[in-house]
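Final paragraph of the annual report: two paired records, presented back to back.
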Amino acid sequence: MGVGIKQCCLADPSLLITKGLIGAEWVGSDDGSTFQVENPATREVIAELPKLGSSETERAIVAAEKAFSVWKKKTAKERSSIMKRWLDLVKENVEDLAKIITLENGKPLAEAMGEMAFATDIIEFYAEEAKRIEGDVSSSIFAEKKILVLRQVCPALAAGCTMVLKPAELTPFSALALAELGLRAGFPPGVLNIVMGDAPAVGKALKDSPAVRKMAFTGSTAVGRTIMEGCAKTLKRVSLELGGNAPFIVFDDADVDLAVQGLIAAKFWNNGQVCISPNRVLVHDGVYDTFSKKLAEAVGALKVGNGFDKEVTTGPVITVQGMQKVFARNGC
């Protein structure tokens, strides 16, 4: 483990987990292969994690299928109670969870704390909704890839589904910590499994398995297309959140100061690395000069750096490739 962990200073260091989760067992890779996760602010190696592939994913699917027979039979009130215990544990460890997000993602700690506040709201909402499920529930095992996965995981848990979760290899620690707190809260083994490492192998195992009834994915259009094609073979349901090209539009009657504030919030949230981040800014000619001047001043006031620095307002992009892409688009 790298020195970046010392900077993190967790109250509960056991939440920084470096293994995958199958059933109730934290596991390494079958062949011993690993991959490194870096702190994007310092490029220091945080830790080496097991590079899990098809064989480990297949075991995770079996564990999820076995747990489904247990989890689906619990009453709505029982599932709600376990989710509320999970919520309590997340709240108790919210500062550690925010530090883990900053460590792996680079965003300012204050922003990570705000993200965790939203996360606890999500858990609380679905813990309550677990008692009020209406309609048909068609999915059992749920596979999903997302930096912060609770918007998909919580409704699945509330409905009585089990899942295999594949977090991004760049930012796996927050998902692993949430899973550990889930085990402490009383989720039966296999309700939530986590595999990461060899993305194509993991994805193929999930797509090919008839036990997996639904897959969800957030990422590129190209990968989303292959997931939809693969899922067609077993008639899986899919939920895909893929690439976009979002405009930010400023009309001539807009409150320019408010528009600038809104653009800064939208464009620099999560260091600009979110699916709803504006790709284009369209400004009416009548307010263009004023808007441009005020926007330049607002951007100039941002401080980019290590998210653990209290004065930093914007963290780094997660990968060197992402940084180079930004430079290329700006002619650097």
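The closing record of the year follows.
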Amino acid sequence: MDIPQPVKQGQSKFMNRYQRFIRGKGLAYSTEKTYLYWCKCFLRFKCYKSEEEIQAEDIASYLEYLVINRNVSPNTQKTALNALVFLCREFLKQETKHFKFSKSKKQTRIPVVFTHQEASMVINQLDNPYKLIAQIMYGSGLRLNEVLRLRLNDIDLGKNTITVRSGKGNKDRQTLLAKIIKPYLTAQMNHVSNLHKFDLSNNLGFVYMPYALGRKYPNHARSIGWQYLFPAQQLSTDPRTGERMRHHIMDRTVQRQIKLAINATKIMKKASSHTFRHSFATRLLEQETDIRNIQELLGHSDVKTTQIYTHVAGLHHTGAISPIDSLTN
């Protein structure tokens, strides 16, 4: 569950203080968990006995260990570096410059992309609400968890826009809302409204409110606009307060349904739910949409991340013809 858990009381005083420090910085909960994980791994590797023994200069040897002994990917090594630099520079106030270590060799991976026909085949294998979730990923370029965290007030049917709140990098953005799915969205929103009325009749109807909004606006947690667009069938318990509330569908449930749909279509690609997002970007490039616009719609902080899709879309526009296609019978 992506609701921030209470700070653990059973862990060491150092980890308790560090977790409170991270949370005080307002970082995403997923980032908090990642930073705590790499901190524990680093401490175990160096066998530190006290906080005073922790040295930023030891980060380099640990990063080399990850590459040479654990054979980790470049992204994993980079994540560990970011986490440990945050630990030493921000929390322990140590100097963290001029690290020298063996870097994991970065591989250029071209995204797996559906053709439009393949995307349609997979979507048509799904039942609602999973079908609508896939349509939003393909039609709007959202990540799976960005779709699942949508609230009713994030959907603007009049302007044909979807607002993504606290996306990757803790940034908000707006993206396209495909007109063709508006009737299905309306039906889903009506379903949520009816389900919310049922919960209210049972003295329930609460949803998770990010940050301190639940205290600032106590009535918003039961308002219709804050309800999740894709609510779970079963109620869950807020780990912070013990209150019964309705969270959104879990990502692993959707991933399982999409994998089954891909297998049913017999598409021989290493595809997943994220392939819909890759396909969205590729379709826009094929339509000659400006890459800066695509960058904004996807929420990329660096246009270089968006440019990877040119390797996919460009294959069809180079004018190159395979030699064997020019052979005559």
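The CA atoms of residues 64 and 70 lie 9 Å apart. This concludes the annual technical report; the extension proposal builds directly on these records.
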